[in-house]
Specification:
Length: 403
């Protein structure tokens, strides 16, 4: 396997034309090479346990390739230095758009669920003081986000602030390629902790270390990190995946040394206002559904090799060793994963509404006509043309038949 690049490039600031999911797989040498799972930082230990289990039950050889960030892993996969990794829907959109990657499998949760809910969690005392508490009451306070550009931690909350009119969207000027989502969050909250997997990005004003998004900020990364940020008082509100508080509170099944408060000391904050006990049904108290985490590989992966990867993971996904309950940090795969399933749809379809929200957040402040033009230029206009032709031919057939 070739050595990793010394410095991975940053993804383009502007949205690029996405790879075509329907492009045939191109031939590639080394189809019998070990299958390399890209592990990020501390994931490497869990990855080695994971691939050891796979090697015991697999005809293929599995290895781990370590990188310091998920964006470095995306770059490694694109360059053929690694083969696959697991990503949340928000980062999967970045991998698809900028690193020529596609989804080949996804996690499946309890009751065959292939999605999870985005929730906001606050301290119970805030709800006791104000029964009609709403997100607008947190203007000027501190927020916790599991990761910059992640679906539950960033994209969905940002889009809600825009859609609800709680925060005006900063406008872009001509030739301005800077994103506006971080400015929007910084304008609403006094400080935030949203660690980034990309150097120079993210909002880490409340992560410690003088507000710098360094490796220290990874203490608050992921859904567990966002809850820890709320738990220790770094933030007043946390945006994360439902089910996190139940596992990581002081009386939870995955309680950590930093889990100093019981579940009863927290409440869900509903999007339309009001609080709800975390043990209650969260229906109508979420910020949306996010597709399950996906396993992605490069778009040029030979079809024969891709099929081997899928087959081996499908066979292994029935082993409980794959999803150890002590994996509270969701290393390699989410700890709540019950199974892995192959994705039959195109990556755009797999990511669903999450991809739409990701694009909206990415293009905040841009002229809507320009965004529409960019979207059409991405290849979606072909679908529109095909539908128009079908409608025209159908109408013509009906007209001729009626004569």
């Amino acid at each position: 396997m070739p050595p990793p690049s010394s410095a991975p490039p940053s993804p383009p600031a502007e949205m690029v034309r996405p790879p075509d999911d329907d492009t045939p797989f191109t031939p590639e040498s080394g189809s019998s090479d070990p299958i390399a799972w890209c592990a990020v930082r501390d994931e490497i230990s869990e990855c080695r346990t994971f691939v050891a289990m796979l090697n015991d039950a697999s005809s293929a050889t599995w290895t781990c390739e370590k990188r310091d960030s998920r964006f470095e892993c995306m770059h490694a996969i694109m360059k053929g230095e690694a083969d696959l990794m697991s990503l949340d829907a928000g980062l999967a959109y970045i991998a698809f758009m900028n690193f020529h990657m596609k989804a080949i499998m996804m996690e499946e949760y309890c009751y065959f669920a292939k999605s999870y809910e985005v929730v906001a969690i606050v301290h119970k005392e805030e709800c006791s003081k104000n029964p009609s508490l709403s997100l607008k009451d947190f203007r000027g306070k501190e927020s916790c986000h599991g990761g910059y550009l992640t679906a539950a931690g960033w994209n969905y909350p940002v889009q809600f602030l825009v859609d609800s009119g709680l925060q005006a969207v900063p406008k872009k000027t001509a030739n301005d390629t800077e994103r506006r989502d971080d400015e929007l969050i910084s304008s609403f909250f006094s400080s935030s902790c949203a660690p980034s997997e990309l150097e120079g990005q993210g909002v880490c004003t409340s992560c410690g270390n003088n507000g710098s998004c360094t490796t220290d900020s990874y203490t608050y990364a992921g859904h567990a990190g966002a809850f820890r940020c709320l738990m220790d008082g770094t933030g007043d509100i946390a945006f994360l995946r439902s089910g996190t508080a139940e596992r990581l509170s002081a009386d939870g099944i995955h309680a950590q040394e930093w889990s100093t408060k019981a579940l009863e000391e927290f409440r869900y904050l509903c999007p339309q206002g009001g609080c709800r006990s975390i043990n209650e049904n969260i229906e109508n108290c979420t910020f949306g559904s996010v597709p399950a985490n996906v396993i992605m590989t490069r778009n040029s992966q030979p079809n024969s090799r891709r099929l081997v990867i899928v087959e081996q993971l499908l066979n292994a996904s029935y082993s409980q060793t794959l999803y150890k309950p002590q994996n509270w940090n969701d290393y390699v795969l989410s700890s709540r994963t019950q199974n892995l399933v192959e994705t039959k749809e195109l990556t755009r379809q797999v990511l669903g509404n999450s991809a739409v929200i990701s694009q909206k957040v990415e293009t905040l402040g841009e002229d809507k006509s320009e965004v529409t033009a960019a979207f059409l230029d991405s290849g979606s206009h072909l679908l529109c043309v095909n539908w128009l032709l079908l409608i025209c031919f159908t109408l013509l057939y009906i007209f001729l038949w009626s004569q």
